[in-house]
Amino acid sequence: MLRKTLFVLAIASALTACGKESKDPGKGGKGAKEQAGAAANLLVSPEDLLTIQSNALASGPVITGSVQPERNADLRAEVSAVVIQVMKENGEAVKRGDVLVRLDETSIRDSLNSAEEASRAASQVLEQSERMFQRMKTLRASGMTSTQALEDAEIRRNNAQSDLSAAKSRAVQARQQLQRTLVRAPFDGIVSERKVSNGDTAQIGKELIKVIDPTSMRLEGLVSADKIGVVKVGQPVLFRINGYPGQDFAGKVRRVDPAANAVTRQVAVLVDFNDKEQPRVAGLYAEGRIETDSISALMIPDSALVKAGDVTYTWKVKDKALHKTTLHIGTRDVRTGQWEVQSGLASGDTVLRTPGSTFKDGQKVELTAAKAVPAAAVASSSSAVAGKGN
Q: What whole-number distance in Å separates Cα of residue 240 and Cα of residue 40?
């Protein structure tokens, strides 16, 4: 019975306390609601707003392709031999004439020694044949030998000359083969691909190592055949390269192929970089636009856009309130980084330059004036100046 009585008294006291709180701070609760409504207003400065205007938008056919070096060498074996040593690895810098791969020269050096010995022997035979021929000429002049003997000596001399020439040719060939066992860099560059290892058997024509010149990069792109009619040599090209986010590259059309691909119906277009700043990696995907014309279009910076899946919108400020406005975005101007607005905004509309993630549609906006200098600071500076004057 005592427990029930205590429980009833506790409930009664709690209800009494709640009633007092609801009566006494009634005016305070209303003030809190007013403060919350005031806090919901968005304070923005003129620097936070952006006025949509029409700007020049470069237009032209899209070009896609990859960055490739103009100077590249795919070094192959010119002799059949075993790979003794690969001197350079992928990514290492090389100078012209540096040895990149060494092949086994044992058999080739033996061939060279044999050819040189044969050349010396043929030279001795020629000397003997020449002395015999001159002796037979003297004997024939005195009538002590026949004409046939003289002709035979001359034939032997001529054959010896031919044998010496053939021996020297074999020696030169063997010497060249010996030099080809050392694969050297044809120009300054970087090893882009090593294709053999120590102990591999290299047949004639086998790929050994590849060297590229990273300072000779260019864009080897493709343009649709139905757009190629407006592309001309010297036109500017703006493009982006995969692997270099946020960085734009500029170039000029150097060459347009005279024939389209029979399968893809695309035309190859070669583009040179304008600046010395080029990607150091070959084979990267690139996409851009050839500037063949310029049109006027509404433009908006990327910072003012909000993307939610496939929907793109911005926050427009109108009648002192925020309005969530869905946009239809067109192409991107690579020169400025801004996007074409095809629908959703009109010239003169005001939007937030950098919208946040907590904004609500219809939220009130209060425009703040420029920050004024506090009066206390002005007074203190004035007194300081007066003090200096005294």
A: 42
